[in-house]
Amino acid sequence: MFLEPKPNIDELVKRCKAGQRKAQEMLYKRLAGKMLGVCMRYSIDRMEAEDMLQNGFIKVFQKMGDYRGEGSFEGWVRRIMVHSSIEYYRRHHKMMQVVDMDEAGEEPTVNAIASSSLEAKDLLMLIKGLSPGYRMVFNMYAIDGYSHKEIAEMTGISEGASKSQLSRARAILKEQILSIEKKRYEYAG
Q1: What is the CATH number of the domain that holds 110?
Q2: Which one, of 63, 48, 59, 50, lies nearest residue 84 by Cα?
Protein backbone atom coordinates (compact mmCIF):
# COMPACT_ATOMS: atom_id res chain seq x y z
CA MET A 1 0.00 0.00 0.00
CA PHE A 2 1.38 3.38 -1.03
CA LEU A 3 0.68 6.49 0.97
CA GLU A 4 -0.53 9.46 -1.00
CA PRO A 5 1.55 12.58 -0.33
CA LYS A 6 -0.14 15.15 1.88
CA PRO A 7 -1.44 18.03 -0.27
CA ASN A 8 -0.07 21.47 0.52
CA ILE A 9 -2.31 24.34 1.66
CA ASP A 10 -2.57 25.84 -1.84
CA GLU A 11 -3.78 22.53 -3.24
CA LEU A 12 -6.30 22.14 -0.42
CA VAL A 13 -7.59 25.67 -1.01
CA LYS A 14 -8.02 24.92 -4.71
CA ARG A 15 -9.92 21.73 -3.91
CA CYS A 16 -12.06 23.49 -1.31
CA LYS A 17 -13.00 26.17 -3.84
CA ALA A 18 -14.11 23.30 -6.10
CA GLY A 19 -16.39 22.12 -3.29
CA GLN A 20 -14.53 18.93 -2.35
CA ARG A 21 -15.67 17.91 1.15
CA LYS A 22 -12.60 15.74 1.78
CA ALA A 23 -10.36 18.74 1.12
CA GLN A 24 -12.41 20.80 3.59
CA GLU A 25 -11.95 18.09 6.19
CA MET A 26 -8.20 17.94 5.55
CA LEU A 27 -7.88 21.74 5.72
CA TYR A 28 -9.86 21.81 8.95
CA LYS A 29 -7.65 19.13 10.50
CA ARG A 30 -4.52 20.96 9.38
CA LEU A 31 -5.50 24.36 10.82
CA ALA A 32 -7.94 23.62 13.65
CA GLY A 33 -5.30 23.34 16.39
CA LYS A 34 -3.71 26.71 15.66
CA MET A 35 -7.06 28.41 15.16
CA LEU A 36 -8.43 26.95 18.38
CA GLY A 37 -5.56 28.73 20.11
CA VAL A 38 -6.71 32.01 18.56
CA CYS A 39 -10.30 31.40 19.69
CA MET A 40 -9.17 30.38 23.20
CA ARG A 41 -7.72 33.86 23.71
CA TYR A 42 -11.17 35.38 23.18
CA SER A 43 -13.28 32.79 24.97
CA ILE A 44 -14.24 32.08 28.55
CA ASP A 45 -13.53 28.35 28.26
CA ARG A 46 -12.66 25.61 25.78
CA MET A 47 -16.29 24.84 24.95
CA GLU A 48 -16.90 28.44 23.95
CA ALA A 49 -13.66 28.48 21.94
CA GLU A 50 -14.76 25.36 20.08
CA ASP A 51 -18.05 27.07 19.19
CA MET A 52 -16.10 30.09 17.94
CA LEU A 53 -13.86 27.76 15.93
CA GLN A 54 -16.80 25.97 14.30
CA ASN A 55 -18.49 29.26 13.41
CA GLY A 56 -15.19 30.53 12.04
CA PHE A 57 -14.62 27.51 9.81
CA ILE A 58 -18.17 27.72 8.47
CA LYS A 59 -17.32 31.27 7.39
CA VAL A 60 -13.96 30.18 5.97
CA PHE A 61 -15.66 27.64 3.73
CA GLN A 62 -18.48 30.03 2.80
CA LYS A 63 -15.99 32.78 1.88
CA MET A 64 -13.39 30.52 0.28
CA GLY A 65 -14.09 32.13 -3.10
CA ASP A 66 -13.07 35.51 -1.66
CA TYR A 67 -9.52 34.34 -0.97
CA ARG A 68 -7.43 35.60 -3.88
CA GLY A 69 -4.14 34.01 -2.94
CA GLU A 70 -2.65 37.32 -1.80
CA GLY A 71 -0.79 36.88 1.45
CA SER A 72 -0.82 33.92 3.74
CA PHE A 73 -3.92 31.71 3.68
CA GLU A 74 -3.36 30.94 7.34
CA GLY A 75 -3.34 34.68 8.09
CA TRP A 76 -6.60 35.05 6.15
CA VAL A 77 -8.16 32.25 8.21
CA ARG A 78 -6.81 33.75 11.45
CA ARG A 79 -8.48 37.07 10.64
CA ILE A 80 -11.80 35.28 10.06
CA MET A 81 -11.39 33.49 13.41
CA VAL A 82 -10.82 36.78 15.23
CA HIS A 83 -13.90 38.32 13.57
CA SER A 84 -15.91 35.19 14.33
CA SER A 85 -14.82 35.30 17.97
CA ILE A 86 -15.85 38.95 18.26
CA GLU A 87 -19.24 38.22 16.68
CA TYR A 88 -19.74 35.31 19.07
CA TYR A 89 -18.84 37.52 22.00
CA ARG A 90 -21.34 40.19 20.90
CA ARG A 91 -24.15 37.63 20.58
CA HIS A 92 -23.52 35.78 23.83
CA HIS A 93 -22.09 38.31 26.29
CA LYS A 94 -22.84 41.77 27.56
CA MET A 95 -21.11 44.57 25.75
CA MET A 96 -17.65 45.44 26.95
CA GLN A 97 -17.16 47.27 30.18
CA VAL A 98 -15.99 50.72 29.15
CA VAL A 99 -13.61 52.59 31.40
CA ASP A 100 -13.26 56.35 31.29
CA MET A 101 -9.77 57.52 30.25
CA ASP A 102 -9.30 59.40 33.55
CA GLU A 103 -10.10 56.24 35.51
CA ALA A 104 -7.76 54.13 33.38
CA GLY A 105 -4.69 56.06 34.42
CA GLU A 106 -1.53 56.34 32.41
CA GLU A 107 0.17 53.65 30.39
CA PRO A 108 2.58 51.63 32.49
CA THR A 109 6.10 52.82 31.83
CA VAL A 110 7.74 49.56 32.87
CA ASN A 111 7.04 46.67 30.57
CA ALA A 112 6.33 44.15 33.32
CA ILE A 113 5.50 41.41 30.87
CA ALA A 114 8.80 41.66 29.01
CA SER A 115 10.87 41.83 32.18
CA SER A 116 9.03 38.98 33.89
CA SER A 117 10.40 35.48 34.28
CA LEU A 118 6.90 34.04 33.83
CA GLU A 119 6.43 31.47 31.10
CA ALA A 120 4.13 32.09 28.13
CA LYS A 121 1.48 29.74 29.48
CA ASP A 122 1.42 31.69 32.75
CA LEU A 123 1.03 34.97 30.90
CA LEU A 124 -1.79 33.52 28.80
CA MET A 125 -3.56 32.43 31.99
CA LEU A 126 -3.26 35.95 33.38
CA ILE A 127 -4.67 37.37 30.15
CA LYS A 128 -7.49 34.83 30.26
CA GLY A 129 -8.32 36.10 33.76
CA LEU A 130 -9.02 39.63 32.50
CA SER A 131 -12.64 40.68 32.16
CA PRO A 132 -13.98 39.81 28.68
CA GLY A 133 -13.83 43.39 27.40
CA TYR A 134 -10.29 44.01 28.58
CA ARG A 135 -9.18 40.59 27.30
CA MET A 136 -10.68 41.19 23.85
CA VAL A 137 -9.05 44.59 23.35
CA PHE A 138 -5.72 43.40 24.79
CA ASN A 139 -5.68 40.36 22.48
CA MET A 140 -6.68 42.36 19.42
CA TYR A 141 -4.08 45.08 20.02
CA ALA A 142 -1.13 43.38 21.71
CA ILE A 143 -1.32 39.92 20.16
CA ASP A 144 -3.20 40.19 16.88
CA GLY A 145 -1.80 43.61 15.95
CA TYR A 146 -5.00 45.55 15.25
CA SER A 147 -4.99 49.35 15.59
CA HIS A 148 -7.37 51.11 17.96
CA LYS A 149 -9.31 52.33 14.92
CA GLU A 150 -9.74 48.76 13.64
CA ILE A 151 -10.71 47.54 17.12
CA ALA A 152 -13.31 50.30 17.37
CA GLU A 153 -14.78 49.41 13.98
CA MET A 154 -14.90 45.67 14.71
CA THR A 155 -16.29 45.89 18.24
CA GLY A 156 -18.53 48.92 18.00
CA ILE A 157 -16.74 50.91 20.71
CA SER A 158 -14.92 54.23 20.31
CA GLU A 159 -11.17 54.48 19.73
CA GLY A 160 -10.89 56.18 23.12
CA ALA A 161 -12.68 53.28 24.79
CA SER A 162 -10.32 50.87 23.04
CA LYS A 163 -7.31 52.81 24.31
CA SER A 164 -8.66 52.94 27.85
CA GLN A 165 -9.52 49.22 27.80
CA LEU A 166 -5.96 48.44 26.71
CA SER A 167 -4.47 50.76 29.30
CA ARG A 168 -6.52 49.21 32.10
CA ALA A 169 -5.74 45.66 30.91
CA ARG A 170 -2.02 46.44 30.91
CA ALA A 171 -2.23 47.97 34.38
CA ILE A 172 -4.04 44.91 35.74
CA LEU A 173 -1.55 42.53 34.14
CA LYS A 174 1.36 44.58 35.45
CA GLU A 175 -0.06 44.45 38.99
CA GLN A 176 -0.58 40.70 38.77
CA ILE A 177 2.89 40.04 37.38
CA LEU A 178 4.58 42.21 40.00
CA SER A 179 2.60 40.43 42.71
CA ILE A 180 3.67 37.01 41.40
CA GLU A 181 7.29 38.12 41.09
CA LYS A 182 7.22 39.51 44.65
CA LYS A 183 5.88 36.19 45.98
CA ARG A 184 8.57 34.27 44.11
CA TYR A 185 11.25 36.58 45.49
CA GLU A 186 9.94 36.20 49.04
CA TYR A 187 9.72 32.42 48.65
CA ALA A 188 13.28 32.21 47.26
CA GLY A 189 14.69 34.45 49.97
Answers
A1: 1.10.10.10
A2: 59
- Sequence length of the chain is 189
Are 52 and 39 a contacting pair, CB within 8 Å?
A: yes
Q: What is the mean pLDDT of residues 154-178?
A: 93
Contact present, 39 and 49 (Cβ < 8 Å): yes
In angstroms, the Cα distances linking 90 to 98, 130, 180 are 14, 17, 32
Q: List Cβ neighbours of 172 (8 Å cut-off, separation of 6 or more).
A: 130, 134
Query: pLDDT, tens digit, for every residue of 66-121?
Result: 998 888 999 999 999 999 999 988 888 654 444 444 444 444 434 444 444 567 78
* Same domain, residue pair 146 and 176: yes
Domain termination residue (choose one: 48, 75, 92): 92
CA–CA dist 73, 76 (Å, integer): 5
Check whether residue 125 and residue 142 sit in a common domain.
yes
Domain annotation covers residue 3: no
Please check whether residue 134 lies inside any domain of the structure: yes
Which domain does 71 fall in, by range? 9-92
Residue type for 96, please?
A: M
Question: In 3-state terms, what secondary structure has residue 51?
Answer: helix
Q: Is 109 helix (H, G, I), strand (E, B) or coil?
A: coil
Q: pTM for this one? A: 0.72
The last residue of one of the domains, among 92, 121, 148, is 92
- Provide the percentage of residues in the chain whose pLDDT is more than 90: 58
